[in-house]
C-alpha cells in the first residue's frame, strides 16, 4: 500500500485501475536472504512486469522468477529421502514500521512438478528479525521476514535402475563363481574381472551420488557390495588350496567338525556326502560291500584316533587311501 498513489475515481470518470511501468513508482527492494548469487537477490526488477495501480493506493506487481537458493540437505536415507527447503524473503534495511510483509496463502499447482522430486507441501509464515540499523539513533531494528518452506520427496526409481540393480547383479555374479569346481582355473580370473567391473561401474556412477560428509544408505550398500565382491577372490584361493593344497595340514579331527562339513551341510546344500563319495571310490576299485563297511568304519576311527599314513595304508591299501584322503579334503572344499 502506498498512500501517495491514492485518487478519487469520481474525478476521473470512474477510473479506479491503471497500468503503469515499474520505473514510474517507488518499489521496495525485496530480497531472498539465502540466494546463491548476491546480484540476483533482489527479486523486484523494474525492467520486468507491469504495475496494476488501484485507486486505493494498492500496488500490484506479479512476477515469475527463477531463483537459485541454498538448502541444506540431509542424505542419510538417500535416495529415499525427504527434504525441507526454506526461502527467506525480507526488505533491505526497511524496518517493519515502514514496510511489512504478509502471507495471505500458499498454493501448489499441478505444473510445479519435476522429474526428480515430488512437492508434498508448501507452508508460509511471517516473523520479525533484527538487523543493524544504518542510523545513529538505533543500533538494531525489527525487519519483517517471510519464510516459505517447501517439502520435497525424491523419486528413487532412477537410482534403483542405474545403481542398485546393476551393483546387486555384479555382486551375485561374483558369488556364482563358487558353483564352478575347485579345479577350474577360471574361478579366480572371473572374481578379479568382477572386482574390476564393479570398480569401473562405481567410478562412472560417482557423479550421481551427493557429496556430503554424511554417509547415505545407498553409498553404504554399494561399499558393502564391493567388499563382498573383493572377498570372493581370497575365498576362492583358500577353497582351491583346501582341495589341492598341502596335505600335511590335515583337517581337524573333531567329530562335530567332520559331521558338520561332511554329513549335515552336504545334505542341506544337496551335494554328495563323504560316505557317498567313498562308495564311488570303492565301486571303482571293485571293493565288496563288506569291505566298504569295514573301510568306512576304520576311516572314521582313524580320523578320530589320529593314525599315521602308514597305519591307514595297512588297512586300506595305498591306492584307495590316497583317493579317500583326497576326497576328504575335496568334500570340505565343495561344501565351503
UniProtKB/TrEMBL annotation:
Stretches assigned to the Neurotransmitter-gated ion-channel transmembrane domain: 163-316
Residues annotated as transmembrane: 158-181, 188-205, 225-244
Subcellular localization(s) per the UniProt record: Membrane
Biased amino acid composition, Basic and acidic residues: 306-336
Gene Ontology molecular functions: extracellular ligand-gated monoatomic ion channel activity; transmembrane signaling receptor activity
InterPro entries: Neur_chan_lig-bd, Neur_chan_lig-bd_sf, Neur_channel, Neuro-gated_channel_TM_sf, Neuro_actylchol_rec, Neurotrans-gated_channel_TM, Neurotransmitter_ion_chnl_CS
Pfam families: Neur_chan_LBD, Neur_chan_memb
UniProt protein name: Neuronal acetylcholine receptor subunit alpha-3
Organism: Holothuria leucospilota
Amino acid at each position: 500500500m502506498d498512500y501517495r498513489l491514492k485518487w478519487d475515481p469520481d474525478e476521473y470518470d470512474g477510473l479506479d485501475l491503471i497500468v503503469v511501468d515499474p520505473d514510474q513508482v517507488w518499489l521496495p527492494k525485496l530480497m531472498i536472504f539465502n540466494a546463491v548469487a548476491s546480484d540476483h537477490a533482489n527479486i523486484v526488477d523494474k525492467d520486468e512486469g507491469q504495475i496494476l495501480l488501484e485507486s486505493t493506493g494498492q500496488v500490484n506487481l506479479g512476477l515469475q522468477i527463477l531463483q537459485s537458493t541454498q538448502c541444506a540437505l540431509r542424505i542419510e536415507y538417500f535416495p529415499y529421502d525427504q527434504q525441507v527447503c526454506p526461502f527467506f524473503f525480507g526488505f533491505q534495511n526497511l524496518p517493519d514500521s515502514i514496510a511489512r510483509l504478509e502471507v495471505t496463502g500458499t498454493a501448489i499447482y499441478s505444473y510445479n512438478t519435476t522429474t526428480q522430486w515430488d512437492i508434498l507441501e508448501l507452508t508460509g509464515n511471517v516473523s520479525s528479525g533484527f538487523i543493524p540499523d544504518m542510523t545513529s539513533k538505533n543500533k538494531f531494528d525489527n525487519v519483517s521476514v517471510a519464510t516459505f518452506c517447501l517439502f520435497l520427496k525424491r523419486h528413487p526409481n532412477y537410482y534403483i535402475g542405474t545403481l542398485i540393480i546393476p551393483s546387486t547383479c555384479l555382486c551375485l555374479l561374483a558369488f556364482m563363481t563358487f558353483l564352478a569346481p575347485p579345479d577350474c582355473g577360471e574361478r579366480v580370473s572371473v572374481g578379479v574381472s568382477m572386482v574390476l567391473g564393479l570398480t569401473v561401474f562405481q567410478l562412472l556412477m560417482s557423479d550421481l551420488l551427493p557429496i556430503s560428509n554424511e554417509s547415505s544408505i545407498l553409498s553404504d550398500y554399494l561399499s558393502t557390495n564391493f567388499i563382498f565382491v573383493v572377498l570372493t577372490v581370497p575365498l576362492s584361493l583358500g577353497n582351491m588350496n583346501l582341495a589341492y593344497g598341502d596335505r600335511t595340514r590335515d583337517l581337524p579331527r573333531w567329530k562335530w567338525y567332520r559331521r558338520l562339513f561332511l554329513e549335515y551341510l552336504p545334505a542341506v546344500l544337496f551335494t554328495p556326502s563323504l560316505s557317498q563319495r567313498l562308495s564311488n571310490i570303492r565301486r571303482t576299485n571293485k571293493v565288496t560291500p563288506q569291505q566298504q563297511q569295514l573301510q568306512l568304519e576304520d576311516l572314521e576311527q582313524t580320523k578320530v584316533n589320529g593314525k599315521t599314513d602308514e597305519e591307514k595304508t595297512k588297512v586300506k591299501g595305498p591306492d584307495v587311501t590316497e583317493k579317500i584322503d583326497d576326497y576328504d579334503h575335496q568334500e570340505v572344499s565343495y561344501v565351503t
